[in-house]
Amino acid sequence: MSNTVILGASNKTDRYANKAHQALKAAGHTTIPVNPVEKLILGDSVVHQIKDVWQPIDTLTVYISPQHFAPLTDDIIRLSPRRIIFNPGTECPELYYQFPDHIELIEACTLVMLRTQQY
Fold first, then answer.
1. Cα–Cα nearest to 42, from 67, 9, 69, 87
2. CA pair distance 111, 51, nearest whole angstrom
3. Which option is the CATH number for 3-115: 3.40.225.10, 3.40.50.2300, 3.50.50.60, 3.40.50.720?
4. What is the number of other CB atoms lying within 10 angstroms of the CB of residue 63?
5. pLDDT tens digits for 7-50?
6. 67-76: b or e for each residue (b if 16 or more CB lie within 10 Å)?
7. pTM to 2 decimal places
């Protein structure tokens, strides 16, 4: 399977980031949670800043608001994921032009993509 960064990962079980994290793991994906304060989420070591992710990344799934995403754009471009999934409420089309063409930008729900075999 593929490495997936969960930007805005959470230990709170009522958060969609947590539900997606669980579903990704259940589907066999390697998950890399990014959260500025947590140390461990669902048994995975947490990376505190996106710029500290060192593994090759297939997918970055976004669970932070556009105003928090905007300052991370350069670090995300350097990470060079194959695709970025902007989950509902995280879309920021005013920034999309900054990403190179080889990074696929998708406005969708990671949970729905997993359930419908589109992930």
1. 9
2. 25
3. 3.40.50.720
4. 27
5. 999 999 999 999 999 999 999 999 999 999 999 999 999 999 99
6. eebeebeeeb
7. 0.96
